[in-house]
């Protein structure tokens, strides 16, 4: 009976060749692939990661951050354009509303892009999806720039919507693509490059938004045009980069091409161990259709995983980071800083986020740390930072002596910085690639899409609700974030499994899903 089952299993995989699995059921390729000689960062691998992030992750960070420094001059132009088009001036409230809509519609585009990302990734591949995504980037940038020269401001929010779509696609596909091409012990480091590139471009866009550069009434549209350069670089480099070998093998069933691409990435003549591991995954999923988004919630094998992945994304947003970066200048002003200090403190905050993300990327695959521990450490730092921020802002606005108020202002700045450093330690980069580590191949695309959608929804909620709530509660608004962070700390400690250096099968065993899979298989016999 056993030999018949094995024959059937091998005959169902004509494209994959013979899969030799030991009689005791032990599969050791995973341990072999964790050895240092199998985890070298080769030039083709680094080039592929660079090409994927420079035109995608870079765009997301740039278009998120560039609207902050040009907000005043751009909204002033809105008023002039409205008068040119309709012969009447906008009130301050109307101008603020339209500009807020322009900023916020980017998140709506992100949700739309995130929804369609999984279909594109499964139908045309990871690399080709990023290539096609450049059409949205070019269209959005052209519309935003063209709006100024034809004096027709409605084109700008339309362009923001389209660039938001491209960012939603990038947020889903880039971490997926990088995780699939990375060696098993390098997934954390390379997976963090998406967030690292995002923070870098966000920081650089703030610098280019200085009044001395593009943040003035004459040159502010140039900040959009500048984003065309990384898109062009990606279009030039990506054709020389391989498709994800895992996608080629598991979805297209092209073993030879997957092996060639893997050899190109690893720069070794023999990739049989890694191909063997992929074939093992294929033997478990052959004939299984791609999991749909509803099935992630209804199927017991995926429900726990998708809840964990969504919670990590919600932790990223409901910790309050969107509010801190969108309104950092106002936060520093509320803390008592005057003149140009709030602006330069905002730039410093962006730099700290970028610098700490570099450190975090190195820690991701360090033997003393893991995804779970870094995420928990980051949340803990944010928890105490928000408490310290509220205390110091209360002190800075108190009726005590001026020296105490000054001490409160300094303390508030300090805790904003520790908050950002803590965020970059784990809660910022980890959720983007964690979902790719915890799901099997036939469920990754749908899981990546729904978690990205949830991330954009969370960002929209926090971004739109912060100012109204802050107008009522003042700096005590951050206590709401403290409560959320406390909940996510508990959830991480209780439910989030470690994924560093582990295969999907190993993660499933820790989560107790292997026994569920066996019982389902037995019931199907």
Summary keywords:
mainly alpha; 525 residues; Growth Hormone, Chain: A; 27 helices; 0% strand; 2 domains
Care to count the β-strands?
0
- What CATH architecture of the largest domain do you see? Up-down Bundle
CATH names the topology of the largest domain as Growth Hormone, Chain: A
Strand content: under 5%
What's the CATH class of the largest domain, please?
A: Mainly Alpha
Q: Superfamily at the CATH H level of the largest domain? A: MFS general substrate transporter like domains
Helix segment tally: 27
The CA-CA distance between the termini, in Å, is 13 Å
Low-confidence stretches: 1-27
Give the tally of structural domains: 2
Share in helix: over 70%
């Amino acid at each position: 009976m056993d030999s018949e089952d094995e024959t059937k299993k091998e005959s169902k995989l004509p494209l994959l060749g013979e899969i030799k699995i030991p009689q005791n059921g032990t599969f050791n390729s995973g341990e072999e692939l964790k050895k240092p000689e199998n985890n070298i960062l080769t030039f083709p691998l680094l080039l592929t990661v660079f090409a994927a992030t420079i035109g995608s992750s870079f765009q997301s960070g740039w278009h998120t951050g560039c609207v902050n420094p040009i907000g005043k001059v751009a909204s002033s132009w809105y008023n002039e354009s409205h008068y040119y088009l309709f012969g009447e001036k906008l009130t301050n409230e109307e101008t603020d509303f339209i500009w807020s809509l322009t900023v916020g519609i980017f998140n709506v585009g992100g949700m739309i892009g995130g929804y369609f990302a999984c279909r594109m990734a499964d139908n045309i591949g990871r690399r080709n999806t990023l290539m096609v995504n450049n059409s949205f980037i070019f269209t959005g940038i052209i519309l935003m720039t063209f709006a100024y020269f034809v004096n027709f401001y409605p084109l700008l929010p339309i362009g923001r919507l389209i660039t938001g779509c491209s960012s939603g696609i990038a947020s889903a596909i880039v971490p997926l693509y990088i995780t699939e091409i990375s060696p098993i012990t390098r997934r954390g480091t390379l997976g963090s490059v998406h967030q690292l590139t995002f923070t870098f471009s966000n920081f650089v866009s703030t610098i280019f938004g200085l009044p001395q550069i593009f943040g003035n009434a004459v040159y502010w549209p140039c900040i959009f045009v500048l984003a065309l350069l990384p898109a062009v670089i990606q279009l030039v480099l990506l054709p020389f980069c391989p498709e994800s070998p895992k996608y080629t093998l598991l979805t297209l069933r092209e073993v030879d091409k997957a092996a060639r691409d893997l050899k190109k990435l690893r720069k070794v003549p023999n990739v049989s161990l890694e191909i063997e591991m992929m074939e093992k995954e294929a033997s478990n999923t052959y004939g299984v259709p791609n999991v749909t988004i509803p099935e992630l919630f209804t199927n017991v094998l995926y429900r726990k995983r998708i809840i964990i992945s969504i919670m990590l994304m919600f932790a990223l947003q409901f910790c309050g980071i969107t509010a801190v970066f969108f309104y950092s200048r106002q936060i520093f002003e509320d803390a008592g800083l005057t003149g140009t200090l709030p602006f330069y403190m905002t730039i410093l905050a962006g730099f700290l986020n970028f610098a700490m993300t570099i450190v975090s990327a190195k820690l991701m695959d360090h033997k003393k740390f893991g995804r779970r521990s870094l995420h928990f450490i980051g949340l803990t730092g944010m928890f105490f930072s928000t408490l310290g921020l509220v205390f110091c802002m209360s002190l800075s606005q108190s009726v005590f002596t001026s020296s105490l108020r000054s001490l409160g202002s300094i303390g508030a700045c300090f805790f904003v910085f520790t908050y950002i450093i803590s965020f970059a330690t784990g809660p910022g980069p980890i959720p983007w690639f964690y979902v790719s580590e915890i799901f099997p191949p036939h469920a990754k695309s749908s899981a990546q899409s729904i978690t990205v959608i949830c991330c954009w929804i969370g960002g929209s909620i926090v971004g739109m609700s912060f100012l109204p709530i802050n107008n009522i509660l003042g700096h005590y608004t951050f206590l709401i974030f403290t409560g959320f962070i406390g909940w996510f700390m508990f959830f991480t400690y209780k439910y989030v499994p470690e994924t560093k250096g582990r295969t999907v099968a190993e993660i499933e065993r820790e989560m107790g899903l292997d026994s569920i899979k066996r019982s389902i298989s037995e019931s199907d016999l």
